[in-house]
Every structure is written in structure tokens, then in C-alpha cells.
């Protein structure tokens, strides 16, 4: 394993002073992310260095994804997935309130389907000791069904490099798991993509070479891991890393990070998160 201090030293803070940040997404010329504590979704324009508010949804968690001119957002307060024009007011599209307890942790759009994963518990009542997490699949008509269960606090999701598998970070199990995506959107052939002992992988991003970057809040780091579990690189930060997105066009890893107060203080409004969007130069 390589701990890359040079890359950490070359990183640039693009935005600071925000809350608990998540769901980094890269589109041409822009980096998107959500601020869970503020109920806001932002777009950072790389050319101008400006931060633009794209949506306000009073939801915690607040997972979303922009796709072309559309944006999909999970509203935990209503159990609805919203859909609308990016920068506009998203409207109710799919009701998933009956599938799981609590909000959706991550959302991913694949073809004409949307996948949402759930920890399936109420964090105000404490974190579960068993693997109760779920993954739901939502069709274009808004109908939804559970396609995977028994996940240990599912977090980040990404497609494999060839698009045939869905890879999910299980934070409470220290592993990345993968499912083959069937033609009807079902998930089959579950397998361990990588065991990562001692890690708590959160947001993930696949690199073109087939490796995976993951953010780790307790370790205050972003880590590149190969399929099978070999740690190839670790970049240490001064606060917890919640999500990351690799941009192949400029060999940059965009990371959102904040000061994690611990689960017991998750809803403490006095906590100073100082959430940041960070650009880290990487080679793969």
C-alpha cells in the first residue's frame, strides 16, 4: 500500500464552510454534491469557480444524481423520489416509503432505471447490529421493488467498468459487494468485490483501470482498492471523507469531507462540520 503525501499536499480546497456533504457527481465542467444538514444540492462550475444552488429539499439523508438535463432526488421526509429539470423544482415521481425504514443513502441511475439503497433503520434510535440494508430498483414508470437485501449499512454505489455489475459499499462490513444487473433490472449473483479489513467505505467511484476509490469517514482518507481487496493507495485528509468521484478527463479525484461528530451527535445543530469540496490530483 502507498500512502501518498504528495497528492495530499497538492490537493486544493474548492469550497469550505458547509455542512455534512455527500453524493459527489461529476458532469462536463461541473462537480455536484449535496449538503445534508442544509437540505441543499449544489453545482460547482470548474471554469469560473462559482457555486450554484440547484435544489432545496429538506431531507436527511439527501441523495441525488444529475443525468443530462434531469435530476433525481430522494426526499427522506416523504419517502418519495423526485424527478425534474436540473436547476428547477423536482416533483414527486416514485413512492418508495413502504419499502424500508428511514431515508435512502445513495441513488444511482442506470439506463432508464434508478437504484436507491437504504440502511433501513432510524438513526435517531441507534444503528443496527445486523445487516438489514436494502437496494430498491425503480422503473421509468415509477414502480419500485426491492432487488437486494441483507446489506450491512449500504452506502456508495457505482457501476463496474463494463456496466454489467452494481458495486455497493457496505460500511459496517468493511467490504465492497457486487451484483450482476439482469435485463429486467434485478440484481443477481451477489459476490464480495473486495474485503477491506478495518475500513468503513462510504461513497465510491470506479476508475477506468477497474480499481475503485472509496471515501472513509473514520480513517479521514480516500483509498484506491483493487478487486479482491489489495489497497493500492491511500490519501489522508484532515477530516472525514464522505464521498468521492473520479474525473478521467483531468485525472482528478473530487472529494467531499467534513468533521464527523459521531453518530450520537449527527443531528446536533451546533456542530461545526466545515464541509469542504476538495480536488485531489491522481494518476488513475
Describe this protein with a few key phrases.
284 residues; 1 helix; mainly beta; 25 strands; Neuraminidase; 4-stranded antiparallel beta sheet
Classify the helix fraction into a percent range.
under 10%
pLDDT < 50 stretches: none
Q: Count the DSSP helices.
A: 1
Mean pLDDT across every amino acid position: 92
Count every beta strand, where a strand is a DSSP E run of 2 or more residues. Answer: 25
Q: How are the strands of the biggest sheet laid out side by side?
A: 1-22-21-20-19
Radius of gyration, in angstroms, nearest whole number = 17 Å
Shape: globular
What class would the helix/strand composition place it in? Answer: mainly beta
Give a description of the structure:
By secondary structure, this protein is mainly beta. It has a single domain (2-281), classed as TolB, C-terminal domain (Neuraminidase, 6 Propeller). It has one helix and 25 strands. Strand 13 (133-138) and strand 14 form a beta hairpin. It is globular, with a radius of gyration of 17 Å. The two termini are 15 Å apart. The mean pLDDT is 92.
Question: What is this entry, summarized?
Answer:
With 284 residues, the protein is mostly beta strands.
Detail the topology: elements first, then pairings.
Elements: E1 2-3, H1 5-10, E2 12-18, E3 21-27, E4 30-35, E5 40-45, E6 50-56, E7 64-67, E8 70-75, E9 80-85, E10 91-95, E11 104-110, E12 113-118, E13 133-138, E14 144-151, E15 154-159, E16 165-170, E17 175-181, E18 187-195, E19 201-206, E20 212-216, E21 221-225, E22 231-236, E23 240-247, E24 252-258, E25 275-281
Parallel strand pairs: 1-22
Antiparallel strand pairs: 2-25, 3-4, 4-5, 5-6, 7-8, 8-9, 9-10, 11-12, 12-13, 13-14, 15-16, 16-17, 17-18, 19-20, 20-21, 21-22, 23-24, 24-25
